[in-house]
Amino acid sequence: MLKAKVILVALGAALAVPQALAGASPEEDRKESVEYFKQMFPDVPFEEFVNGQYALNEDRRKQWESMQDFPPYEFAVAEGQELFETPFANGKTYASCFENGGIGIRQNYPYFDTEKNEVITLELAINRCREANGEEPLKWKKGAIASISAYMASTSQGKPINIKVPDDPEALAAYQDGKKFYYSRRGQLNFSCASCHVQNPGKWIRADFLSPALGQPANFPVHRAKWGELGTLHRRFAGCNNNVRAEPLPAQSEEYRNLEYFLTYMSNGLPVVGPATRP
Amino acid sequence: MNKPLLAIGISLALSVPLAAQGGPKEDFQEVYAKAQSTHQDAGNFQWTITSDRLKAAKSAADSGDHEKAMAMAKEALKLAEESVAQRKKQKEAWRQVAIGN
């Protein structure tokens, strides 16, 4: 009887150990993802992935290159700079809330705040800066917040994305939550983010050409022809969810911030190229 | 046999099931409430089409079109149940397609 119990316990332990070890580290995930996309598109240089569909489709690339002489986001960047430098009612500016006065820091966002136990995106930091200085928060998806974010991104052009997942259970949980969101099928059409951007980049879905997940957040905020204006990454998340008939979540919800954390970590090492244009 | 008594007895017997049934309004309220709570159970896996059907059901009920209201509520309930099933399935299914698992 005792022997049988020992065998059962050993068997249980043997089955439990691989489960506990399952789940790769963020860095293992990232390396595997990069390798996956390199094998899928062997002719695309690593740094070109930030250009999304323009790295994969020659016709789209030509259209994009012709727009680069007068990029449609230029006015928004100028507006963003003006807003960024204009003092609040208390005399302080956005620069007072950020490391290095907010210049050249885009590549470090989002980060995990181990004191508040949450992911801090650049847009969240912008609005928290306003509130800390007695100002009303801005709307999340477009307008002034997108312009300020675009200006800040423009000061980081070319800097490699450098997202960190600290050795902290809460940070790892936020990363894992974002990863789960990315790969979970949702909506009546039963699509995940990965259905399009991991499993089918380089293909057409109706009139849309699918970009790879690698490099996607590097170009935000983006000016989309469809929007006719700049929009934030969370605006795009909501649009994607809506496309598959999943109820979009609020911009800057915990789910979308964790999703941004995972997705941006996957692009570590790629240069910031935002703001950018997309169809 | 007392025919009038028999007639009254039959009439009463036939009326019992009718009395036990609610009216179309009550039936609608029950299905609509169930559809709403199932839609909530879907959490962050809610479907936009379910929300649309719920709105259509409410709008039809408000305008007195109980037949359409019931049809929309039933459809919303079915869609909400599918979204809950999706949420449950994806709890583990996502791992099978994720890079790095």
From TrEMBL, chain A:
Residue stretches making up the Cytochrome c domain? 79-161, 177-272
> What's the Enzyme Commission number for this chain?
2.8.5.2
Do you know which InterPro entries this protein is assigned to? Cyt_c-like_dom (IPR009056), Cyt_c-like_dom_sf (IPR036909), SoxA (IPR025710)
**Catalytic residues in the record:** 240 (cysteine persulfide intermediate)
Lineage top rank: taxon: Bacteria
Q: Which reaction does it catalyse?
A: S-sulfanyl-L-cysteinyl-[SoxY protein] + thiosulfate + 2 Fe(III)-[cytochrome c] = S-(2-sulfodisulfanyl)-L-cysteinyl-[SoxY protein] + 2 Fe(II)-[cytochrome c] + 2 H(+); L-cysteinyl-[SoxY protein] + thiosulfate + 2 Fe(III)-[cytochrome c] = S-sulfosulfanyl-L-cysteinyl-[SoxY protein] + 2 Fe(II)-[cytochrome c] + 2 H(+)
Q: Entry cofactor note text? A: Binds 2 heme groups per subunit.
- Which cofactors is this protein said to need? heme
Q: Which UniProt keywords apply?
A: Electron transport, Heme, Iron, Metal-binding, Periplasm, Signal, Transferase, Transport
The record lists heme c 2 as bound by: 193, 196-197, 240
Q: Which residues bind heme c 1?
A: 97, 129
MF (Gene Ontology): electron transfer activity; heme binding; metal ion binding; oxidoreductase activity, acting on a sulfur group of donors, cytochrome as acceptor; transferase activity
Transmembrane parts of this sequence? none
* GO cellular component entries: cytochrome complex; periplasmic space
For biological process, the GO terms are: sulfur oxidation
Q: Which family does it belong to?
A: Belongs to the SoxA family.
Please give the subunit comment from the record: Heterodimer of SoxA and SoxX.
**What is the name of this protein?**
SoxAX cytochrome complex subunit A
From TrEMBL, chain B:
Question: Which keywords does UniProt give here?
Answer: Signal
Q: Protein name, please?
A: SoxXA-binding protein SoxK
In the record, which residues are listed under signal peptide? 1-22
Lineage, top-rank taxon, reads Bacteria
Asked whether the keyword Signal is assigned, the reply is yes
**The keyword Signal is annotated on this UniProt entry:** yes
